[in-house]
Every structure is written in structure tokens, then in C-alpha cells.
Amino acid sequence: MEFRIQNPEQMHELGMAIAKVLRAGDLLLLNGPLGAGKTTLTRGIGEGLGASGTVQSPTFVLARTHRTAAGPKLVHVDAYRLTSAVELDDLDIDFANSIVVVEWARDYVDGIAEHWLQVDINREAEDESRMVSIFGTGKRWQGVEIALSN
Ligand SMILES: Nc1ncnc2c1ncn2[C@@H]1O[C@H](COP(=O)(O)OP(=O)(O)O)[C@@H](O)[C@H]1O
Ligand SMILES: [Mg+2]
User: What's the gap between Cα 71 and its chain centre?
Assistant: First the structure.
């Protein structure tokens, strides 16, 4: 799935649209350069799930856990400062009972999940628009559609 996202508000909307299809056990990998909109998207996911607290770049902590109205916890990881898969493993994330969103995952999640949703954000144009491609791997994501209204 590909979306052209014109501004931060629309990125937030996309996050809310993604949230509609999420459930416990889901893993999202967000790729894109600094300032691409990974945290903005995660904030939309947080709003969509009814997450407690503010979703922000986990600058001083590697992972932030938010309770949600939807049920499963939202675990927001910023793997930017991680240097190995072992460090991610050391966070002891409860993947099965959470919705886990990882910024800068690189290949650190290899082997820890059977299915995941990869979101690649590209900033190609000079303007504020972003091309977002979303690709699900594994049976879980077969036939799952994300619909961005308007
Ligand atoms: N189309 C867009 N989508 C997302 N963010 C945008 C867009 N245009 C401008 N921005 C701005 O870019 C910045 C993205 O920051 P952030 O979401 O923290 O990125 P990242 O987490 O990828 O480093 C924000 O300041 C946001 O307002
Ligand atoms: Mg960020």
C-alpha cells in the first residue's frame, strides 16, 4: 500500500487509520530518516488506540509503554541508539500482549517475530509531502487493508 502524505496532520490521520487494524501481537517497523514523520505517525496510532500519556520520541528511554483504551499496551521503541539486536532483546518487551512500534528497527528484530508491518517513509520532494509505503509480512497481514479517508 502506498500513500502520499501531504502534511503532519495527514500523517497523524494515517496513524489513526493503521490503529484501526491493530491488535495484540502486532509489530510495526518504521523506517525513514530523522524528521521523516515516524513519531508523528506513532502519535496518530496512539490516538487511534486511546493511548494514555503523550507519545513522543523516547529520547532518554529506549521504550515507552502506554496503556490504551483499545486493550493491548502500546510499546513505542526508538532503536536509534541501540547497537545490537541483543540490546533490543534486553528490553524484555511483552510482544504477545502488546502492539509494538519500533522506530529505527534496522535488522534488530530479525527472528523475533513471525509477522510484522513495515512502514517506509520517504521524503523525496522539496515540499512537506512524504511517500509512505506499507508492507505486511506473514499470514497475519494478508488481505489487511488500511484506508485513509479524504
Ligand atoms: N508530511 C509530513 N508528515 C510528517 N511530518 C511532517 C510532514 N511534513 C512536515 N512534517 C514535520 O516533520 C517532523 C517529523 O518529525 P518526527 O515525526 O519526530 O520524525 P521522526 O520520528 O521520523 O524523526 C515534524 O516536525 C512534522 O511536523
Ligand atoms: Mg522519532
Answer: 17
